[in-house]
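Hi team, as promised in this morning's meeting, here are the two structures we talked about. I've kept the exact order from the run log so nobody has to guess. The first one is mostly here for context; it's the second one we should focus on when we meet again. Sequence first, then the predicted structure tokens.
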Amino acid sequence: MRIGILGLGRIGAFHAETLSALDAVGSLVVADPFADAARAAAERFGAEVADSPEAVLAAGVDGVVIAAATDAHPALILAAVEAGVPVFCEKPVARTIAEGVDVLKAVSGRDVPVQIGFNRRFDAGFAAARAAVRGGELGKLHTVRSTTLDPAPPPAAYIAASGGIFRDCSVHDFDVVRWVTGREVSEVYAVGGNRGADFIREAGDADTTGAVLTLDDGTIAVISNSRHNARGYDVRMEIHGFDDSIAVGLEDKLPLRSVEPGTAFPAGTPHDFFMDRFAAAYRAELTAFTEVVAGARPSPCTIEDALEAGWIAEACTLSLHEHRPVTIAEVRRG
């Protein structure tokens, strides 16, 4: 099949590399506002270069991957759907939740699949955790812990446009908690601090946060995030039930140092970047998209799914700023 890629920055170029290695993909057509980025991808992966998103959509592509700047996501999603081309779009759907809702309304009723990029759904460990929970192996759940710790903050310009740590980073934890447990979040309470980079504080954001989520069945989920983790990129989940407890991410590349005497775990080189930690998940995610394009499966992560995680991020952002519990119903009304 023929796949278009819109945006050839860090993640777009990574997706181009992944797609070029998939058996289902015969050719790529790429476009980027920076012509040098498009040419570099074309030379590296044997792709064709188009001079605009419209030209990509008119080039006979079977599906399109959107890895452009967030502000461009709504228009590009709508253009692809209007052209009848299945879409994979990196999260978020839009810069704000209100814009995301507008996108959902605009594509509702259209028979064109849209897949939003939440790669943890395709990680082997998280998939195994979901299967264990859904299969009843843990019994009734009581506690979930989900962690995302970055090795260092992104650039100041990125932070200023990110919408805040809950919308940019924690949203992955929110999505995977919903996906693994099969439950919805009813209420949140969030806290945050700044002990590191001044530019994060100056942007009105926090560099380290914690959030307690109450799920609709009473399960408690504790979310921990930070832009500063000197040992590496740390993504983990614990799920505790009345019959058993399991963990995702307890492997030799875990960026954590044990001080227990005689303990050699973890023994590997720590993960230092999300593309390292989730390389296999990204491949599985884009393989799934080729199956969506082929009509072999429905979208495994819809706009509706992305917006549900977005509402949790909105509630946590409000809770942080107002120092109080916030229900999901409250932000939906707001």
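And here is the second protein, the one for discussion:
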Amino acid sequence: MKYHVYGIGNALVDKEFEVTESFLAENGIEKGLMTLIEEDQLSNLLANLKESFGLKKRAGGGSAANTIVAISQLGGNTFYACKVADDETGDFYMKDLAVAGVTTKLDQIKGDGITGKCLVMVTDDAERTMNTYLGITSDFSVDDLHIEDLINSEFLYIEGYLVTSDVSRNAAIEARNIAKQNNVKTAFTFSDPAMVTYFKEGVSEIIGEGVDVLFCNEEEACTYTGKENLDDAILDLQKITDKLVVTLGSKGAMVISKDKQVNIEANKVTAIDTNGAGDMFAGAFMYGLTQGMSDHDAGKLASESAARTVATFGARLDKEVLQSVLAKYMD
């Protein structure tokens, strides 16, 4: 086995802004969700944001990429399959993953087009709202999977955002099938309430007969299952996964297996930016899982790592910060 976790997902460069509630309302932007936009909409909104608030930060992003970076920074061996264009933004993205210690083959497969971008708007209550132009990443296909690297991995990790493109959804389904045929375990994250609201059928296609690990928050769990309370949603979700990880924000998290439920306490912090918190939780938990940690210890590592992310502007942490958190949970 060469990699602990092999991830697939959208390649997006985040441009982050601190905005007001009124800005979102005036521009008809749905708060708290990820909304897909076209290139012209991105250009107009970006110009408006820069003029009104100024760019706070540019960073590599994408849900699964954030998770894979976290695993790598904690010490795991990782591979990330995605798609960028042969442009400045694509170069930035490729180098950003390399610095984080993530193996890719992006230097071999850059295509003509525009690398995807995500405008991340953070309000005073620390809630993140995203408007995303997928660009070339919507063409992420079976041809971009690097199957040899996938079958040399312990886990395949799939982000829910891939469901928005027919081509990418088919790639995710094929990756899951290949993983199953080669005894590679699969982890999947719903990623965003919008994915299970507007693309539920596609999400179910990716999950297929079930996955080994499923990550979601309370809203996503209830929306996907159509249940009014979390307990009922959990009973439904347990039918499609061996290990269900439900994040509950300030209330912590739950890890539910066939034979037990582990409750994880939240780490109290002053929230600045919730962008990337779920990705970080998944990354730290997956690292713990692949290193033989118990669900409780992996959950504690994930909870504190996510809390540190919420207390920081941006979706990722410095490696040194993550390593200092990890040190608390090592023998």
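Starting points for discussion:
The domain at 3-327 is CATH 3.40.1190.20 (UDP-N-acetylmuramoyl-L-alanine:D-glutamate ligase).
The radius of gyration is 18 Å.
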